Amino acid sequence: MVYRIGSAQGFYGDDVTRALPMILGEHVDVVCFEALAELTLAILQKDRLKDPSRGYTFDLNIIANKILPEAFKRKIPLITNGGGLNPLGAAEMVRQTAEKLGLHGVKIAAVTGDDVTFKLADLKVAGEPLTHLETGDPLDLDSGGFLVNANVYLGAAPIVEALQAGADIVITGRVADPALYLAPLIAHYGWAWDDWDRLASGIVCGHLLECTGQVVGGNSLAVIDEIDPADLPHLGYPIAHVEADGRFIITKTPGMPGIVNVNTVKEQLLYEVHDPANYITPDVVANFTTLTLEDVGENQVRVCGVTGKPRPEKLKLNIGRVEGYMRELIFTIGCPEAWRKVEQMKRMIEKTWEGLPIQRVEYHYLGINSLFGSVAELPPDPLEVIVRVMFTAPDEGTLKTAVRRMMTNGLSGPAGMSISGTTISGDARIILGLFPTLVGREHIMPQIDYMVV
Amino acid sequence: MKRLYDLAFGRAGDKGNIANLSVIARSPEAYQEIKAKLTADKVKAYLGDLVKGEVVRYEMDNIEALNFVLYDALDGGGTRSLRIDGLGKSLAGILLYMPWED
Question: I want to staple A182 with a disulfide (CB 3.0 to 4.6 A). Which of A202, A244, A301, A394 is the partner?
């Protein structure tokens, strides 16, 4: 008997209802939902500042209302890191929803302990150097911007414990993405915590599943000739069939569109990977260079031979700080003399914003060089140039003033220049500085709280 | 014009201010050719201002693919970048469009 893991979320905003065909068809033994990109916790912090009961992903409301009832009926546990900054608040919302739906006996687990936002000073006192992983700079809490959040990437252990305690839904905050998928394998098969090859195999499995559509034909050059574009919004999200020895097959939800072959698996295997021989996670360091891939049936790829090395001594900690705000304006400029008028516009902006604390101003020409910068050649005399102006300031008020001042130039600017209404009514965006560092495991104590309906 | 895309496909990923580009060969012969010619220095030179830091190449003979890691390549990363593609999703594409000489 294989153990079957479904993956129904790869980012905050993904279509989590793609879990339903997996569950209704009983194609899976567990479903995982991965919701947290690097920026997501900062978005959730904004929600929590407005209302302390929030700070988790809105997708969890859909999971609680539509998916949990069907999964609970069939004893298929759900695992999600969509608790974000507030797993306990999320668990309380799920509890209330389950009660309203009459789901008697549902057991909800909330995993906390990843949030060290208010413990950073203590960690420094305890002797943690907290130096930047890329630059080596020490963390200075007095500069570098307003502290938004500091979360450690937890491993699989607390999720394993919650599953073994019979949880029907496990809600966490920051957890290493593939560890969400490794956890049910450890809980099911009882793999030892030093069984590095099996643990690494579970991590590769999780890594292949965690971006949902990306392994079944989405965001793919490999199958661009084969996939029907009309199928892209309905792809059957991926499922892994994992054996006790760690080998597994990647496939997709039966009866739904999509393509899984060796090439889609290769594309996802290297997605967001640095050294493929040393893929570092809290529970194991996985080596991708020993594995083999084989097409073993329609939309079925077997993955064998993953090897692993002992887990790292320290855990990754990511600290987010607000460095300022950015704003975008988009102007259209047509012929004749498009480039000359672009220069007029730039000079006009420079003079208009004189005296304001604007920090950076960047100009990109959409359709010409906005993606590839200096790799792109500029055409000599284009019919149209769409100029994207990006500018930053320490505060949102400055950006508003800058836009207002710019608008007063409406009848005084370059000939034939226009600006769209949606650009004018747009909002500022946070500039979030991330400070990745390491922290000793001994300082991090994951905690599990249970609620039963 | 022949391009790297004739020999390979791939995908870009991001972590902070670091991008990675996979270059996955379309055949065993293509892999040998790419492995021999597509050096980290060549990729770094081709991408110009897009990559401020170093480029490191990893080989995966087992799946006939190369992985290029581009440091300081996303204008601060997805949470800070002023680029329209702050996550660098399009960067694999421009590498694959590199003109290729036999």
Answer: A202
- Domain shared by A176 and A73, yes or no: yes
* Token couple for A188: 């099911």
Q: State pLDDT tens for residues A160-218.
A: 999 999 999 999 999 999 999 999 999 999 999 999 999 999 999 999 999 999 999 99
Let me know whether A376 and A275 are in one domain. Answer: no
Looking at the 3D structure of chain B, how many domains does it have? 1
Domain span at residue B58 reads: 4-96
Cross-chain CB nearest to A370 (options B18, B58, B84): B84
List the CATH number of the domain containing B13.
3.30.70
Q: How far apart are CA A71 and CA A97, in angstroms?
A: 14
Q: Is A278 on the interface with B (CB under 8 A)?
A: no
A237 within domain boundaries: yes
- Are A273 and B80 within 8 A, CB to CB? no
**Residues of chain B contacting A270 with CB distance shorter than 8 Å:** 10-11, 13, 20, 22, 24, 60, 65, 67
Contacts of A134 in chain B (CB under 8 A): 16-18, 71
Task: CATH number of the domain at A358, please.
Answer: 3.30.70
Same domain, A30 and A106: yes
Burial B23-54 (b: 16+ CB within 10 A, else e): bbbbeeebbebbbeebebeebbebbeebbeee
**For residue range B51-71, what is the model confidence (pLDDT) as tens digits?**
999 999 999 999 999 999 999
| Predicted model pTM | 0.96
Using DSSP, state whether A411 is helix, strand or coil. coil
